Each structure stands twice: as C-alpha cells, then as structure tokens.
Amino acid sequence: MIIWEQLFGVIGYSVLLSILLAIWEIQIEGTKGWAEKLPCWKKTTGFIPEKIIGAPLTGYHLALVGFLFAMVHFPFVFVQWNIKTELQVLSVVLLILVIEDFLWFVLNPNFSFQKFRKKQIQWRVHWIGPLPTYYYIFSALAVLFLYLSMI
Predict the structure, then answer these.
(1) Which of 41, 44, 37 is nearest to 60 (CA)?
(2) Residue 122 pLDDT more than 90?
(3) pTM of the model
C-alpha cells in the first residue's frame, strides 16, 4: 500500500513542478517556442537534436535541464547516494520533462490543446501518432527506471 501512496505522491509532485516550470518557460519564451527568439546558442545537428529531441539543442534548454537535475539531486547533500534512489530521481526528471513540455502548449495562451499538432509545432520534427517521439522514449525510460528501483 505504501508503494502506491509514494507513487501517487511522486506523480502529484512531478505534475506540480511541471506546471510551475511550464509557466516559467511560457513567461520567458512567449509566443516563440523552443527558445526561437532567445539570445542563446543553438545546435541543430548531431545525435541529440536530430534523434532524441527532434529539435535544436539550445543553451537555454541545456541550462534549464541542468538546473532541474541539480535541484532534484539536492537531497543527496543530506543523505547517502544509492542507485535505487538515483533511478527514482531520474524517473521523476524524465516524467517532469514530458509533462512540462506538454503543459507549455496547453497553458500557453498563444497555443492550446487543440493546436498541439505536428503541423502547428514546427520545431518538433519527430512524431509518432499524436505525440513527439521523445515523449514515448522518456516515458518508457521513466517507467523502466522506476521499475528497476523497486527490484
């Protein structure tokens, strides 16, 4: 029973962080997604931009994800690191990245759930059905990491 309570707590907290992060990014990026108008470097070629995220790798997003990783690892300052907890933390980070990205569109007044389509989102090139490909990859990895942390 306690595992389900923890799971729901982790999901709930991940959604809360995702909402806050999406609102933060909407305020920074405005109508132009994926740091299109931000003064940061952008790398359009290579494995990560071409195969993983299907969009340019930007200095803005690298710093944002780095900050997220640092923040969720903060408890390790107080407790001893172990692989099971690390897998849980990585699972949460992946979950947040997917939920936050989706919420950026849903909560952004310049987009909407109805506009969450490949033809409306030019910076995402790889889609499987109704979702960007990396949503499936990150979600599968999140589930795998969470499963591995429990065995």
Answers:
(1) 41
(2) no
(3) 0.88
